[in-house]
Amino acid sequence: MNWNNYSINKILFKYTYDRAQIVYGYESLAVAHCHRALSKSLITLASVINSNRTNQDSQIQNNIDPNTSIKDSPSSTYLNHAYEAYRIAQDWFSIEDQIRLFPFKMTLSHALQARIAANLSENKNNYYEDAMKYLNECLVIAENIFGLISFKVAQVHRLQSATYLSNQM
Predict the structure, then answer these.
(1) Domain interval for residue 13
(2) For 72-81, what is each residue's pLDDT tens digit?
């Protein structure tokens, strides 16, 4: 690549980056949905890593480097992404718009449940209380919108049950 092509590519890159910041911004709803999706993916990854670790026999577990853990892996950032998604969504929709915040609350509750299940924190009771508070709010919203017998209500109940069981273990 010659110097002119490099300069043109650099200018195009800078222009595209600047336009993306102006159009979408760091605090946009699209960014909130990206945080939410990343949180859900990292929760799945963390659960796969945890299930693989618990299913291995003790001989294989002894060969795992003790300095690496789920706590140190990037997957432990799922809670941070869920909080960021919820924060951006609150700014975008306002705190009063509970219907539009519903999927963000569910993701945050799921991240809190995963954090409790991973048993990574001394703040387990705080995470449990927060998760149950969000889930109770989600349950009221789901019952009002979708009815008592609906998939969304069942989804909230399933997550409540998983959160309760994670806290008890």
Answers:
(1) 3-168
(2) 444 467 888 8
